[in-house]
């Protein structure tokens, strides 16, 4: 269906104890959209992504996400919501004592996969999707940072998510590798997966333009290409 909304956030406020992070924000997202969530350190990007991933309970407002209403989410429903999403972190978060195949099969087994051949096949598919071959038996430390981030993206793709959340996924990578990772996200998005990529790096906006949600002063707002240009020239 065209213009199908996968996320509708209304009157959402997020706080940590008495510290308010964002107030009364509204935004929505359609199927297969690519959205940058841009904002300085501390502006609330991670808190918003954690709320979407149901890691932080939604205290104020409503978020309809992939068929669930987060303000009414039952704890038992959380794994089912998460199965429709993938998440990628700045620091990869691979299990350092297991090889790549074991890192990925761990997630599949935890989400109900039990057929060894199907598990092997799926792992090969997602690794190929992120451009990695013959890495199954390697340990995370035997891979470069960029390769480790590709593995973590492969892990996020295992259950064919509708929405991928990426929190500063290029923060630990040098610029050339960071560009390759953004290009990979764009390819994944072109395959139909919606993506929210949080970053404080404005340079991607110029090279890879897309919709921008700007996070500043407790607000999260859609901004136009012109506003993006103006913000990028601000000191
Ligand atoms: N668990 C927590 N307890 C208390 N305050 C928190 C917690 N997590 C974040 N904060 C505060 O909330 C505000 C928003 O933080 P958040 O991590 O969401 O911002 P961010 O835009 O993702 O920043 P960064 O780019 O540094 O990750 C900050 O002032 C931070 O100190």
From TrEMBL:
GO terms for molecular function: ATP binding; ATP hydrolysis activity; transmembrane transporter activity. The keyword Cell cycle applies. GO terms for biological process: cell division. Gene3D superfamilies: P-loop containing nucleotide triphosphate hydrolases. Keywords: ATP-binding, Cell cycle, Cell division, Nucleotide-binding. InterPro entries: AAA+_ATPase, ABC_transporter-like_ATP-bd, ABC_transporter-like_CS, ABC_transpr_LolD-like, P-loop_NTPase. Residues 7-235 form the ABC transporter domain. Signal peptide: none annotated. GO terms for cellular component: plasma membrane. This is Cell division transport system ATP-binding protein. It comes from Thermoflexibacter ruber.
């Amino acid at each position: 269906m065209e213009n199908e909304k996968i996320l509708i956030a209304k009157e959402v406020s997020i706080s940590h104890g008495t510290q308010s992070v964002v107030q009364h924000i509204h935004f929505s997202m359609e199927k297969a959209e690519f959205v940058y969530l841009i904002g300085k350190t501390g502006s609330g990007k991670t808190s918003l992504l954690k709320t979407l991933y149901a890691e932080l309970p939604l205290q104020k407002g409503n978020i309809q996400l992939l068929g669930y209403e987060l303000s009414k989410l039952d704890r038992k429903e959380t794994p089912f919501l998460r199965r429709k999403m993938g998440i990628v972190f700045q620091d990869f978060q691979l299990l350092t004592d297991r090889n790549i195949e074991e890192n990925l099969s761990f997630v599949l087994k935890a989400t109900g996969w039990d057929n060894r051949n199907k598990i092997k096949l799926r792992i090969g598919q997602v690794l190929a999707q992120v451009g990695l071959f013959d890495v199954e038996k390697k340990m995370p430390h035997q891979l470069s940072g960029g390769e480790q981030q590709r593995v973590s993206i492969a892990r996020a793709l295992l259950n064919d998510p509708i929405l991928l959340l990426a929190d500063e996924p290029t923060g630990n990578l040098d610029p050339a590798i960071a560009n390759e990772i953004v290009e990979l996200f764009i390819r994944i998005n072109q395959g139909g997966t919606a993506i929210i990529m949080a970053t404080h790096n404005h340079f991607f906006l110029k090279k890879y333009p897309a919709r921008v949600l700007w996070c500043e002063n407790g607000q999260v707002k859609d901004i136009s290409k012109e506003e993006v240009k103006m913000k990028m020239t601000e000191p």
